[in-house]
């Protein structure tokens, strides 16, 4: 299949960016990133600089890949990362637009590569349970309801890719932050620090310049792990509770 | 040099506890000024960095990723073993120890493996305390499942994402130490050289991948937890960025590479679909519980399938060769990974492969669907169910067990595995070899330690399923933070390591020269093309089966390819900027040398064991034939560009009897 790609090129956060148009010959069995590899091999053959993009595991779990494809983070398929998207979902002759995540708190490094260290700092602000190695009691000493463990797991599947921020008209990191707060807060081990965790993580999120939530639910729609916005509701409730001094 | 493993004396089951209680300690006031560098943030690296910081050391931690959470441990699917015996099925520390030694085909060190089995229990406790959402039973207690051939149920899991959840646990502990100021984290920094002062590891040279700047970092000790070398083969289930560079640069500074020929080829991966492919995807081993492996008996059927005129479903039962069930009636489709992989290769080599490339076999769930469907109909009181009803009910059961894997398969291949049999083929998955370490996880370079897949220590010639996560976390949380004290307790009078030392300047210049050399070639071929060619040589001659003649030929081919690389590679841009092609070039340069070492090791080992199968050494039935008399040793290679030097550590088996593995 023959495709026309309009790819965003930019040398750094403070440089002007532009779309560059390329033609590429792809196979329908290729993944989207393999198609990008083919394009880059072609550029290198012409001694040109390849398009910089982030990728690593290519099995949808490391959270590295991040392309806005035809206006949607990770492309048209729901529950799918860019690396798991395959060319059979595109038509021969189609024009595809490829852009980086666009958000104030994710400055562009080069082309499609952005800086997502703000996510690390949100976790560092309290996205953990304070337990040192060796302090743990026997794993089976706390029984946890199967359904509750399942809910915590669903929130914990976040891969930290940042699609939620890229999808949000406000560039909000509420889904990312809420997912970690829910994962830890739902479990008895994490309940002890729940109040302080919610406050410090939300404060850090604001400090990083992420926007507010206006309930468009675009984050949920584009989350490759299909994490639910009910986590945001839980976070908001917990935040209010912690500020006003009540329990959860 | 004779290699001394520094194993403690005493009975096997009390070596570690006694040793741990008598090891030298570093007082808290001294820990505060002792610095440790940790390279890598996977399970072993993140766990070690967090734990060392909790103990009071000053830690500098490095990853080439944009965040420590991206390390490839995150992709592990199946689970983590631990000798908890929660299922009351007779598991014990000894049984896990024994299974691991036997599974490794008697090529690992008894004392290390026993320690691994002991601390496996603590890992589960620690992970639960961190909030890792393991699977649970209705009563709220931890669930287990069976894995890879062992006869007890000791694998803990978090759906198909156990590696992700364990890594996030370690990442969160690391994040806490970063926020407390105990760990200084360097993202997007790649270690490119090891700095030795008076023979001891005292620092690294790292390249800031954003600016291209070479930076010097000093410390009293250096820990490498930088993963395995599976990407030597180009196509593997490793992440695209997984590389051997940190470990290999240490080898260039005198560290020994142990057992490099031991690589694990996983039998159930999605086959290669085209030349453009750069990465293979694993389908969990658990599928072999219900999937039957087969190829068509007749070549006409094979051709018809390749041409798309027939599908697997069109081949009648009598024309199918369920070759694992035929060859290994006792274990059938559940033989260990190395055996299953070789059998698939033989079927395809004989011309029975079922896709365009001829390199795929069927993994068929239709029998299981009928079996489960019939049973479900019975339990639902449906009398005389139609074939369609049975299929429907059976499909539901299979979906509940393997739904996410079937979905992933369909996403990648575009075929529905509930209807058509899956096509699978073996792929490189894990490397048992790695830096040689003693009982303390210290390499032969004093002060240089290696943890996780980066070392060779626990899996012998073949790793059992669900043991990689166990080893990475055992090393990181429970072994290295203690054993490193044996070295550091003698360093309390050593002042802060100054990066103004001439050794740092020399290492920085060495790195700079190498980068500039690569950029100055301005040849005609991409880094990727060299990597792909290396992978093909390695897969062909040093893959699932090897022979002396092929290995000798391959060594020359790899050396020629290396010479070609250094005269004809093309890398755009400069060294003073964000330049992913330059990063890749450095890694491929190291793979070229590592590949040669693997070939040499495979050539030296005149026996077949675990993942290393030499065609000359097999039983009349074609099974692997070990030679315990001459080859019960760990090979440790000292790099030399013309003729690498082999050192040996003899393995002593005092607690287990060496037996031939049989799955017939």
Task: Please give a handful of descriptors for the protein shown.
heterodimer, A: 248 residues, alpha+beta, Ubiquitin-like (UB roll), 5-stranded mixed sheet, two-stranded antiparallel sheet, 9 helices, elongated, B: 664 residues, Methane Monooxygenase Hydroxylase, Chain G, domain 1, 3 domains, 5-stranded antiparallel sheet
Write structural notes for this entry.
The complex is a heterodimer of chains A (248) and B (664). Chain A has 248 residues and is of the alpha+beta class. Chain A contains nine helices and seven strands. In chain A, helix 2 runs antiparallel to helix 7, helix 3 packs antiparallel against helix 5 and helix 5 crosses helix 9. Chain A starts with a strand and ends with a helix. Chain B is of the alpha/beta class. Chain B has three domains: 283 residues, FAD/NAD(P)-binding domain; 163 residues, no CATH class; 134 residues, Methane Monooxygenase Hydroxylase, Chain G, domain 1, CATH 1.20.58. In chain B, the strands form six sheets. Chain B has a five-stranded parallel β-sheet. In chain B, helix 3 packs parallel to helix 13, helix 11 packs across helix 12 and helix 15 runs antiparallel to helix 16. Chain B is globular. The relative contact order of chain B is 0.16. Chains A and B meet through helix 1, helix 2 and helix 3 of A and helix 3, helix 5, helix 6, helix 12 and helix 13 of B.
Looking across the biggest beta sheet of chain B, what order are the strands in?
5-2-1-9-17
Q: Give the CA-CA distance, first to last residue of chain B.
A: 42 Å
What Rg of chain B, in angstroms, do the CA atoms define?
25 Å
Largest sheet of chain B: 5 strands, parallel
Largest sheet of chain A: 5 strands, mixed
The CATH architecture of the largest domain in chain A would be Orthogonal Bundle
The gross shape of chain B turns out to be globular
Helix content of chain B: 25-40%
The name CATH uses for the topology of the largest domain in chain A is: Fumarate Reductase Iron-sulfur Protein, Chain B, domain 2
Which structural category fits the helices and strands of chain B?
Answer: alpha/beta
- Determine and state the CATH class of the largest domain in chain A: Mainly Alpha
CATH architecture of the largest domain in chain B: 3-Layer(bba) Sandwich
Could you tell me the radius of gyration of chain A in angstroms? Answer: 20 Å
């Amino acid at each position: 299949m023959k495709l026309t790609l309009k790819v965003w090129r930019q040398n750094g956060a403070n440089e002007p960016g532009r779309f560059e148009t390329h033609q590429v010959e792809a196979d329908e069995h290729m993944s989207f990133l393999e198609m990008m590899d083919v394009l880059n091999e072609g550029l290198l053959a012409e001694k040109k600089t390849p398009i910089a993009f982030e990728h690593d595991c290519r099995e949808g779990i490391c959270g590295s890949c991040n392309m806005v494809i035809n206006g949607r983070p990770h492309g048209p398929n729901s529950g799918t990362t860019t690396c798991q998207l395959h060319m059979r979902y595109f038509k021969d002759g189609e024009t595809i637009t490829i852009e980086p995540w666009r958000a104030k708190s994710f400055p562009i490094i080069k082309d499609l590569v952005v800086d997502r260290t703000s996510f690390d700092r949100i976790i560092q602000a309290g996205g953990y349970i304070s337990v040192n190695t060796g302090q743990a009691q026997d794993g089976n000493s706390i029984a946890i309801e199967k359904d509750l463990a399942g809910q915590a797991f669903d929130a914990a599947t976040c891969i930290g890719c940042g699609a939620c921020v890229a999808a949000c008209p406000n560039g909000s990191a509420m889904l990312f932050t809420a997912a970690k707060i829910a994962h830890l807060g739902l479990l008895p081990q994490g309940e002890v620090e729940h109040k302080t965790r919610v406050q410090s993580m939300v404060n850090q999120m604001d400090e990083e310049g992420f926007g507010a939530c206006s309930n468009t639910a675009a984050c949920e729609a584009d989350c490759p792990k299909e994490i639910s916005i009910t986590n945001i509701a839980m976070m908001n409730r917990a935040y209010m509770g912690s500020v006003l001094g009540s329990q959860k | 040099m004779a290699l001394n493993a520094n194993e403690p004396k005493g009975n096997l089951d009390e070596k570690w506890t006694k040793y741990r209680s008598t090891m030298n300690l570093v007082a808290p006031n001294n820990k505060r000024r002792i610095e440790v560098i940790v390279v890598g943030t996977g399970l072993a690296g993140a766990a070690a960095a967090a734990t060392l910081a909790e103990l009071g050391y000053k830690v500098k931690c490095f990853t080439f990723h944009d965040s420590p959470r991206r390390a490839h441990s995150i992709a592990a699917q199946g689970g983590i073993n631990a000798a908890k015996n929660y299922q009351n099925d007779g598991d014990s520390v000894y049984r896990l120890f024994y299974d691991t030694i036997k599974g490794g085909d008697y090529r690992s060190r008894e004392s290390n493996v026993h320690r691994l089995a002991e601390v496996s229990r603590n890992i589960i406790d620690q992970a639960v305390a961190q909030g890792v959402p393991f699977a649970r039973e209705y009563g709220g207690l931890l669930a287990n499942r069976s894995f890879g051939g062992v006869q007890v149920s000791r694998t803990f899991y978090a759906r198909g994402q156990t590696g992700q959840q364990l890594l996030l646990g370690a990442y969160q502990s690391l994040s806490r130490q970063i926020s407390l100021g105990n760990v200084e984290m360097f993202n997007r920094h790649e270690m490119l050289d090891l700095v030795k002062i008076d023979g001891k590891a005292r620092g690294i040279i790292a390249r800031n991948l954003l600016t291209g700047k070479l930076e010097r970092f000093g410390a009293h000790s250096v820990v490498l937890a930088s993963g395995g070398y599976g990407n030597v083969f180009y196509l593997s289930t490793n992440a695209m960025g997984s590389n051997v560079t940190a470990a290999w640069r240490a080898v260039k500074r005198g560290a020994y590479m142990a057992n490099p020929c031991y690589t694990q080829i996983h039998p159930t991966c999605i086959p290669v679909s085209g030349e453009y492919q750069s990465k293979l995807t694993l389908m969990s081993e658990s599928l072999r519980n219900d999937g039957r492996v087969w190829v068509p008996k007749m070549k006409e059927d094979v051709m018809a399938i390749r041409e798309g005129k027939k599908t697997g479903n069109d081949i009648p039962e009598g024309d199918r060769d369920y070759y694992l069930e035929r060859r290994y009636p006792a274990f059938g489709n559940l033989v260990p990974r190395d055996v299953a992989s070789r059998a698939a290769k033989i079927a395809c080599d004989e011309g029975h492969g079922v896709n365009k490339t001829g390199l795929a076999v069927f993994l068929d769930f239709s029998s299981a669907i009928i079996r489960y469907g019939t049973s479900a109909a019975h339990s639902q009181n449906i009398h005389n169910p139609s074939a369609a009803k049975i299929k429907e009910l059976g499909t539901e059961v299979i979906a509940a067990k393997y739904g996410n894997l079937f979905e992933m398969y369909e996403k990648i291949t575009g075929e529905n595995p509930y209807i058509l049999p899956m096509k699978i083929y073996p792929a490189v998955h894990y490397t048992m070899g790695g830096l040689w370490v003693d009982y303390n996880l210290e390499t032969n370079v004093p002060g240089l330690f290696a943890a996780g897949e980066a070392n060779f220590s626990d899996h012998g010639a073949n790793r059992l399923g669900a043991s990689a996560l166990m080893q990475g976390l055992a090393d990181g949380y429970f072994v290295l933070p203690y054993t490193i004290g044996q070295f550091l307790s003698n360093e309390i009078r050593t002042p802060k390591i100054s990066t103004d030392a001439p050794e740092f300047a020399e290492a920085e210049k060495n790195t700079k020269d190498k980068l500039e050399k690569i950029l100055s070639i301005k040849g005609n071929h991409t880094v990727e093309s060299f990597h792909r060619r290396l992978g093909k040589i390695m897969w062909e001659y040093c893959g699932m089966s090897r022979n002396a003649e092929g290995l000798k030929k391959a060594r020359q081919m790899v050396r020629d390819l290396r010479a070609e690389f250094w005269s004809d590679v093309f890398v755009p841009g400069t060294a003073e900027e964000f330049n992913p092609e330059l990063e890749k070039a450095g890694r491929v340069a190291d793979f070229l040398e590592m590949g040669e070492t693997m070939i040499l090791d495979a050539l030296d080992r005149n026996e077949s064991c675990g993942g290393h199968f030499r065609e000359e050494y097999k039983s009349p039935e074609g099974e692997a034939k070990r030679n315990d008399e001459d080859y019960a040793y760990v090979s440790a290679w000292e790099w030399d560009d013309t003729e690498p030097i082999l050192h040996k550590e003899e393995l002593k088996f005092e607690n287990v009897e060496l037996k031939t593995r049989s799955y017939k």
